[in-house]
Design a protein that fits this description.
Helices cover about 30% and strands about 35% of the residues. By secondary structure, the protein is of the alpha+beta class. The protein has a six-stranded mixed sheet.
Length: about 150
């Protein structure tokens, strides 16, 4: 597949799987040897691993929606930068529902082979999300912008 075709597939993952919850698309988008990696998270494998990840977030944030802010493609790699949010209505990482709306950013580096994603490396602002949920304290800034 071309770099442009890979970008189209990435957009489809965001729109169909993440935003609409159509998990069946994962079988078309991810190879059987797909690996998801993100700091602080266990490696997830295959389309089923991706489905588990999205199910966890959609259960915690039923109105989850991610917007693709930018896509950069070269060869078999696509880098996506996203902004997303949702209302915390279900348990997440042991945190009971807070009813708070969060806004989070992230970056995913995806590699493709044979028309499917084979690898994702994702960095998510988990610290910011946990601060917004009140699970950990946010730093307080003085009027001058210092701590």
């Amino acid at each position: 597949m071309s770099a442009e075709q890979n970008k189209i597939l990435v957009r489809r993952v965001y729109e169909e799987i993440i935003n609409k919850g159509n998990l069946n698309v994962a079988d078309e988008a991810f190879s059987s040897d797909y690996v998801y990696r993100s700091p602080g998270s266990p490696e997830l494998r295959g389309p089923e691993g991706f489905k588990q990840l999205i199910t966890m977030y959609r259960n915690a944030f039923p109105d989850l929606h991610l917007d693709v802010d930018s896509l950069i493609a070269e060869g078999d790699t696509v880098v996506s930068r996203w902004t997303g949010g949702g209302t915390h209505k279900g348990e997440l990482m042991g945190i009971p529902p807070t009813g708070k709306h969060v806004k989070v950013t992230g970056v995913v580096i995806s590699r493709f082979a044979g028309g499917k994603a084979v690898e994702d490396w994702e960095l998510i602002d988990t610290l910011g999300m946990l601060q917004q949920l009140g699970a950990i304290p946010a730093p307080e800034l003085s009027a001058a912008g210092t701590r």
